[in-house]
Amino acid sequence: MAAKTLKFIVTGNSESPSKLMMSVRDFSFAIDEPESLGGTNAGPNPVELVLSSLAGCINVVVHMVAAERNVNIRGLRLTVEGDLDPSRLMGSPTEERPGFSAIALTAEIDSDASAEEIDEILRIAETRCPVKDNLNNPTPITLRCAPVMHPALA
Predict the structure, then answer these.
(1) How many CB atoms lie within 10 A of CB 40?
(2) What is the CA 128 to chain-centroid distance, rounded?
(3) 97 and 56 co-located in one domain
(4) For 68, left (φ over 0), alpha (ψ -120 to 50), or beta?
(5) pLDDT tier at 148 (50, 70, 90 boundaries)?
(6) Does one domain contain both 96 and 35?
(7) C-beta neighbour count of 111 within 10 angstroms
(8) How confident is the model at residue 105 (pLDDT cuts 50, 70, 90)?
């Protein structure tokens, strides 16, 4: 029996060239650039959210896999670092990609399990994490413009 496909939807309303107010389920938050990049520092920037999404997904999947293997995780600290050349983003001629050239995730796990068992949990979690999959593999993305209704016509 095939699993049901889940659809996730987020909506953002621009408040300035750098600040986007997001709505996700019952949550609202700002995406913004730091002042050093022309923003108002009202929230994490888009690439910081990508790294945070990877950490959040690994957190969930590590705990799932550990529970499946009857391993108790007392604590989990994840650090994610990404290297990004901003040249293309800023419009400078370059052969470099605009996205991360490398991402490294370090997991510090407090558990009574052996180092080998923890390594296996991380290995399995890595294969099951949807965010890691999206970062590692091409995913079709469609950008389209929706017609905007003039407020007086709505």
Answers:
(1) 14
(2) 15
(3) yes
(4) alpha
(5) confident
(6) no
(7) 16
(8) very high
d(CA 32, CA 49): 10
Q: Name the residue range of residue 12's domain.
A: 7-43
Tokens of 6: 């889940």
One domain, residues 120 and 108: yes
Same domain as 35, residue 51: no
* CATH code, domain with 86: 3.30.300.20
- Going from the C-alpha of 116 to that of each of 111, 119, 122, 126, the distances in angstroms are 12, 5, 10, 15
Q: DSSP class of residue 37?
A: G
The Cα–Cα gap between 67 and 146 comes to 44
DSSP 73-100: EEEEEEEEEEEE--TTTTT---SS-SSE
Residues 6+ apart with CB under 8 A from 113: 66, 71, 72, 121
135 sits in which H/E element: helix 130-136
In three-state secondary structure terms, 132 is: helix
pLDDT, position 146 = 87
Residue-wise pLDDT tens digits, 7-22: 999 999 999 999 999 9
